[in-house]
Structure formats: C-alpha cells, structure tokens
C-alpha cells in the first residue's frame, strides 16, 4: 500500500516551477543530499521508501570505494571493481532520485542550491561532500605530484608508474633511469603505508619477470613521514609492526622528515635531504570541500564544517553535515570524529533516523560514535589490527582486513570481481592489469584536479 502510494506520487506529479532541474513535485518533504560517498549512501539507505523525497546530487555518477584506490594504482584491481553506479544503487527505491550535477552554492535564506545544471529547492539539506588532497599550500609540490583521492588519481598513478618503468628501459642515462624508477610516497597514514607495501611487492614479484632488463634493486621505494611513527592514529604496537613489515619489504622509511620542495625530478626535505624521483605520491593530508554559501564562522580546522551534537550545521535550522566534512566538536571530540568510513556510515545512518524524527516532531538524541577499531594492511598476507583492547598483527589481521573490505564494497558483482582477483593474486602474485590504456600527461592530471 505504502509502495503504491509512493509510486503514484513519483509518476503523477510534475516539476515544481521554482526548480530548474526537472524533479517531481511530490508534496513530501524534500531531502537534498550533496555527495554519494559512504555518508551520503548510508543516509539514502535509511530514507529509502519512507515518506520523504530524496534527491542525491554528485559530480560523478558513481560511488567510490576509496580504501582500495591503492590496488587500482598498483594494477591489482580494475577501476570498475571499486566504483559503483548510483543509479544501480538506488534501483527500486521509489522515493530516491539521482542527479548528476556539481553543487556550486547553497542559499540558506531561500532553501535553494545552485548546481552547474540549475537551481533546486530543498526542505532539508545534507552536505556529505568529503575531502580533497591537502598539499598545505605547496603549489610546486602539488603541480608535480599525484594525490590519491579519486579513482582518476589511481589511474594516473598507474599510468605514470608504468610509463616511467617503460621509459627507464629506453633511456641510456643512468641518472634518469634512477629518477624514473624511484618512488616517493609522502604520508605514513594507512593510505601511504598500504601504497608503499603494494609497490614493494610489485617491485619484488613483478619487476623481475616483466622487466628483466634491470635488477629489482633498481626500483627504490621511499615512505616519508613528518611524525616520529607510522599509523599515528593506531597503537604503538601497530606502528612498530608496520615499520618492521615495510622494512622487511625493503621500503626506505624516513620518519621525522617533511617534504619541502619537489620539482618533478628531485624531492627535498626539511632537513635538506634530496631524493632523485620522477614519481611522487602524496597521501599526507586532506581538507574538506564544500560549495560556497556556508558562513565562514562555521568552518574549522581542516576546512571542515562545525556541527552541533545532532550533526546540524550551527546557525541553520535545516542544514546538516555528515562524514569527513563534518566536525562535531565536543569535550570528547575536540577535533571532531576521525575521517574514516565507519564514522561517515554511522553519521549517515543516524541522520536518516533523525530527519524522520524531526519531520514527525519527535525528539532527537545526540550522535554517539562507536569506534569499531582500525585495520591497515602491509602488502599481501600481513596487516595490523587494533580492535579495542585486542591488538594483533600478521596473517590473521590480514585475513580480517580482507573480509571487512570485501564485505564493505558495494554490489555483488564488485565483491565477486575483487574476491576473484585477490584469490588469483594470493597464489600467483600476478597482477594482470598492467596496461597503459591512455597516455599519462602530468599537466592534464593537474587540470583534472582543479575541476
Ligand atoms: C586512499 C584512501 C584510503 C582510505 N582508507 C580507508 C580505510 O582503510 N578505512 C577507512 O575507514 N577509511 C579510509 N579512508 C577514508 C574514507 O574513504 C573516508 O573517510 C570516507 O570516504 C568519507 O566518506 P564521505 O561520505 O564523507 O566522503 P566521500 O566518500 O569522499 O564522498 C564525497 C562525495 O561527494 C561528492 N561531492 C563532493 N563535492 C561535491 C559537490 N560540490 N557537488 C556534488 N558532489 C560532490 C564526491 O564526488 C563524492 O562522491 C581512505 C581514504 C583514502 C583517500
């Protein structure tokens, strides 16, 4: 009965005259969600088939599973295994619509947003726009290196790496060959550690087979971290085990070093060290991204939007922020919640229930984050796990990491593809996706990043 009611609403109603993007005028409260990442999609799941109209805007037509970007970058997975079309995700959700558009500005006084395709009104607005790479104002470093915050970044890294390895086989200049085969990863958080481990295994198992022209010792992998330990949000045990695992894979880990300059050929650190490298992957920080129109007084460290304990942006009565972009500052969380998938998912679910309660004039409890623990993998078969008081490392941590990630990927086909690829590479160390499909041009990657 409820389904029929929603179906009729969607078919019978016509566009609201004030909207420039065609959307049915259903008379139901309209919830506009900007961003279909972990937070936005968790919210959609809570609001599906309820008596609200949900419009999800994203600048891509797909959800991205960011924790496995490094596997696409190192040719272990194809991009379509870890991205998932929104329209497939919302198949059969009668009250949810997707519109491919970039939201450029919000107008809180008139409850309207401006997108690059036109304006739309909202009753409730949710910003779930996530983050972009933060180069901390180092323009020169930014213009020569690659971040890892988008599936296109992962493909750029893959193409840069394969092209440079090919060029290394062509050049007769020893110095140039060194620069082409040296890889510098900046940032010793999970993304940097996982990338370094995967590259080290590429060097150990693939390089000797594919590039018999030169010894595997030619490919050097440096991991540079400004702090005095890796994985600084995890336990000391996890940090020290990770260091040991990476050193076992011959990754040159440099702690207490910060990159101060990079000209595309040579990396310079604060202490004056230099490394010859034409490959620099930057995973050292992120900053929030959101449309214009948010009052600057609500923006805090990391370019995040400050919310109250109900994830409402302070100063607005119907605008919320969830996921990486949100900073719920409290006594317990002076820096907001960690910018991880679990926090984003829990906030999305919480807000779904909250919005339904608000509509029904019911009271809303404050958001409470439940930390389910942290995992990070170092190459194949080794990982570190902090699950509350239980802290362990090695094969079982890796098995747990694999199961958790496989279960979290959207779509049955994607789970199957990732699972199949992992089983094959577990037994063979084979990575079959080492194809240079398009020419990587560093300048065009910078243009894409600016968009
Ligand atoms: C390389 C890497 C590895 C990671 N590994 C882990 C891990 O192992 N475990 C973990 O828990 N977390 C990990 N994270 C962090 C995790 O991915 C994020 O915490 C999570 O994605 C945050 O979800 P979100 O929904 O807030 O934002 P996102 O997932 O970033 O989604 C934001 C969405 O908003 C869209 N968008 C942005 N601006 C606009 C606009 N103006 N108009 C329209 N659409 C817009 C984007 O296209 C995107 O789809 C990793 C992140 C990276 C980059």
UniProtKB/TrEMBL annotation:
Domain External alternative NADH-ubiquinone oxidoreductase-like C-terminal: 372-427
GO molecular function: NADH dehydrogenase (quinone) (non-electrogenic) activity
Keywords: FAD, Flavoprotein, NAD, Oxidoreductase, Transit peptide
Family label: Belongs to the NADH dehydrogenase family.
Protein's UniProt name: NADH:ubiquinone reductase (non-electrogenic)
Database matches in PANTHER family: EXTERNAL NADH-UBIQUINONE OXIDOREDUCTASE 1, MITOCHONDRIAL-RELATED, NADH DEHYDROGENASE
Any Pfam family the entry gives: NDH2_C
EC number: 1.6.5.9
Cytoplasm in keyword set: no
Gene3D superfamilies: 3.50.50.100
Catalytic reaction list: a quinone + NADH + H(+) = a quinol + NAD(+)
The FAD/NAD(P)-binding domain, residue ranges: 30-348
Origin: domain of life: Bacteria
Keyword Flavoprotein: yes
Enzyme category, top tier: oxidoreductase
């Amino acid at each position: 009965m409820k389904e029929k009611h929603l179906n009729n609403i969607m078919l019978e109603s016509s566009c609201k005259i004030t909207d420039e993007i065609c959307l049915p005028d259903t008379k139901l409260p309209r919830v506009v969600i900007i961003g279909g990442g972990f937070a936005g999609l968790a919210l959609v799941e809570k609001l599906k088939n309820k008596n609200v109209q949900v419009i999800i805007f994203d600048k891509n037509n797909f959800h991205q599973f960011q924790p496995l970007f490094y596997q696409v970058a190192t040719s272990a997975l194809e991009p379509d295994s870890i991205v998932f079309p929104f329209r497939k995700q919302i198949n059969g959700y009668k009250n949810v619509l997707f519109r491919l558009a970039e939201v450029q500005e919000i107008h809180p006084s008139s409850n309207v947003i401006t997108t690059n395709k036109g304006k739309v009104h909202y009753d409730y607005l949710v910003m779930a726009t996530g983050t972009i790479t933060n180069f901390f104002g180092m323009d020169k470093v930014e213009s020569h290196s690659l971040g890892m915050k988008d599936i296109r970044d992962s493909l750029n890294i893959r193409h840069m790496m394969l092209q440079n390895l090919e060029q290394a086989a062509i050049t007769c200049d020893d110095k140039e060959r060194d620069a082409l085969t040296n890889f510098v990863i900046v940032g010793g958080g999970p993304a940097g550690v996982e990338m370094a481990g995967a590259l080290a295994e590429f060097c150990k198992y693939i390089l000797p087979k594919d590039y018999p022209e030169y010894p595997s010792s030619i490919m050097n992998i440096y991991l540079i971290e400004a702090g005095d330990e890796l994985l600084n949000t995890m336990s000391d045990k996890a940090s020290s085990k990770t260091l040991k695992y990476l050193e076992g894979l011959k990754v040159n880990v440099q702690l207490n070093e910060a990159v101060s300059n990079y000209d595309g050929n040579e990396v310079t650190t604060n202490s004056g060290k230099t490394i010859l490298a034409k490959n620099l992957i930057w995973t050292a920080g992120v900053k929030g991204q959101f449309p214009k129109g948010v009052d600057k007084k609500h923006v805090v460290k990391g370019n995040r939007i400050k919310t109250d304990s109900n994830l409402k942006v302070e100063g607005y009565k119907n605008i919320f922020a969830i996921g990486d972009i949100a900073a719920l500052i409290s006594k317990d969380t002076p820096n907001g919640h960690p910018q991880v998938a679990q926090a984003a998912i829990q906030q999305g679910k919480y807000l779904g229930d909250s919005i339904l309660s608000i509509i029904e004039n019911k009271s809303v409890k404050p958001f409470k984050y439940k930390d389910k623990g942290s995992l990070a993998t170092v190459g194949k078969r080794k990982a570190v796990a902090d699950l509350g008081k239980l802290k362990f490392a090695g094969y079982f941590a890796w098995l747990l990491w694999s199961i958790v990630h496989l279960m979290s990927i959207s779509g049955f086909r994607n789970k199957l593809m990732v699972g199949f690829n992992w089983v094959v590479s577990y037994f063979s160390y084979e990575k079959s996706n080492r194809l240079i499909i398009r020419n990587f041009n560093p300048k065009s990657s910078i243009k894409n990043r600016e968009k």
